[in-house]
Amino acid sequence: MANNKMMTNTIEDIIALGKAAKQASRKLARLSTEDKNRVLLNLTELLRSEQEDVLTANRLDYQEAKAEGLDESLLDRLLLTGERLNGTADEVQRVSELPDPVGEVIETATMPNGLITSRRRVPLGVVGSIYEARPNVTVDIFGLCLKSGNACILRGGKETIRSNEALVTLLRKALSDAGVTEDAVQFVDNPDRALVDAMLKMDDYIDLLVPRGGASLVRFVAENAAMPAVTGGIGVCHTYVDRSADLKMAVEIVHNAKVRRPSICNALDTVLIHSEVAAEGLPLIAKVLTASGVELHCDNRTLSILGPDAPVTAIPANEDDWGKEFLSLTAAVRVVDSLDEALEHIETYGSGHSEAIITEDDAAATRFLDEVDAAAVYVNASTQFTDGGQFGLGAEVGISTQKFHARGPMGLKELTSYKWVIVGKGQIRP
Amino acid sequence: MANNKMMTNTIEDIIALGKAAKQASRKLARLSTEDKNRVLLNLTELLRSEQEDVLTANRLDYQEAKAEGLDESLLDRLLLTGERLNGTADEVQRVSELPDPVGEVIETATMPNGLITSRRRVPLGVVGSIYEARPNVTVDIFGLCLKSGNACILRGGKETIRSNEALVTLLRKALSDAGVTEDAVQFVDNPDRALVDAMLKMDDYIDLLVPRGGASLVRFVAENAAMPAVTGGIGVCHTYVDRSADLKMAVEIVHNAKVRRPSICNALDTVLIHSEVAAEGLPLIAKVLTASGVELHCDNRTLSILGPDAPVTAIPANEDDWGKEFLSLTAAVRVVDSLDEALEHIETYGSGHSEAIITEDDAAATRFLDEVDAAAVYVNASTQFTDGGQFGLGAEVGISTQKFHARGPMGLKELTSYKWVIVGKGQIRP
Lengths: 430, 430
Known about the structure:
The structure is a homodimer of 430-residue chains.
Chain A: H1 11-28, H2 33-49, H3 52-67, H4 72-78, H5 82-97, E1 105-110, E2 116-123, E3 126-131, H6 136-147, E4 151-155, H7 161-177, E5 185-187, H8 193-200, E6 208-212, H9 215-224, E7 237-241, H10 247-259, E8 268-274, H11 275-291, E9 295-298, H12 300-306, E10 314-316, E11 330-336, H13 339-349, E12 354-358, H14 362-371, E13 376-381, E14 398-400, E15 408-410, E16 416-427
Helix pairs in contact in A: 1-8, 2-5, 2-7, 3-7, 5-6, 6-7, 10-11
């Protein structure tokens, strides 16, 4: 498998992939829920029973990446194991259990002239994804696209190309065993960047682009794509500890929001704390964060409250620390004198991803929820909950921080559009 | 008024407009329904009672445009009269009566861990509009933006700049009389194209661009805007007369879809008719269309059915006639041998706007509704119904033919996004 020769060599080739995907998307739009679920259950089975080729291909990717000096965290994201493949299989099975969004009647009404109007949910068409490192994205995106009736074009990172190729072989087998066109998935098996540039201009064939990766990839796609692209996955997330906060709750939430998984976009970056509770709250927060290895970048008031002898890792913050997505065991900390000051800080430095207030004061909670302009706003909970699964969507292709089309976690419904269906009995417009 | 000197002279000026709009949008997002309706009712009143300055300005625009040789249909679109202003006032009043979309809870759920999640409707922020000729667009866009909590930046055509300036004076007065910031509306009073180019790059300040005008304007905006833009307003619309059609109904619908208003985007461009009913149906259709001054561009089968001596205006179609948006009293006509052939024709030549089937056969209707990929699909009704008012939205900023965010007529809800609101009691993510 890993020795197959590269097949997508020219821009003509990738345009051919686009045409094939568009063609397939017309069939997928009308595929029954049963057929879609059959593909997903086939895939679940294959991911559990036919792991050998995938693991072999992944071993080659891993060894090459290691030899090239890829860092440990990237190597870990690249690595597949039997257990990880079983986990991916479980996710595909869960997608098969989700309700089919296609065909849902969103709303219907009878007009005064007797016309019956309704909006009916339809797939977007073709979803392209450009992603890095993690080969399980190949399976995730395919599963969500198929269930929502979309074809997909996958362009993974060059460091996982053998793993992705082996996984795509399973995707194709799952499709053909269910009698569904293999063209439902298109795979760009040549890592040439020129092909990515070509893909970004294929708005005749790709209806939505989903970049999955670091900030620079997301920005590059947003700036260069001719078709709509999901902007997101970048979170500068604040937790504001209000003067009325339950401090024990605040400590637990701040710790969870930072430490549970520091490398994901919904992880806490900055703690804001009201000056009235800073003297009591900050030492408690600093202690649990330090115990988990977090380095604190603090404003002067925080430093003076913690004191020079505190058993915590705290250094002075510089201006760059506000508005930084750390993605690591680092957090910025600042004392504010009011809810207004917290709101202003979040407006200035936030990225519109996930923001939380810890408070027992309903009026403060209401203002925070109303006034913070972000995809997800929380009262008394950890921002790490921003996730399609946690929000009841079952799964997600990504998290949008834009306001157009979809905001926050994007699940099956967010991969659809709608059409207006109008049924008349001969009505003409006066 | 019309002699005011131009104010927006430089790119810095237009960026300042953007900043002011963004600033205002934060206040508008939290404006009460009452305050918004007060602005709209003030405006209704002003449009009825203070017409003099607007009509004077419009007369100057009209005379200048006439002197410059603008064609009759454009001159007519440019012209304001007391009656037309009263009509615009009525529309603003209707918008004041529509439900406020902002704050609506779209869906809510309690997660197994007790978190209460909901999606709450919020404004997009700042809507920019670039439009031509018709000065009433100035008022329409403002009214819909204000009611949906959005600030707007208006850039009308240079041929109506005095009229727009006078109208914007009324908009500002309606705002300030209600105690609402006048920055809710920003007006680009310099017709320099360089300022449009700058506007297209202001994605920090403009959340959505709505081009209103011809195909070349829409395409220019879509290709050059850094922010999301509505693609639409271009309709190559088909009406397919099935073999089971009620031919009397077919004649009435085809006539209405073409003739009622031939210059709008939902007007019929091509008639497709099944060969089994062509001999009976085509002469009837050709007769009523000809009687209304429509020129028919026909395929050979249609011409041979109509015969050389038919009292109709029919000439041979050329390849360009299929897929053409005529916007005039011209229609293309073609005979097809099956529903499949009709579907294929529409897929090849349609623009995804409005498509209709005339049939008494439920199976044919179902296939047409399922398989045609367009913003609006009809059974037994005129495509001229594609309109926000006719679909029960109350009003529209435009008609989208894209699948992302909104498809078909865009009303108040389509000018909104949502935020996820999560209320917890100290939940942390395991």
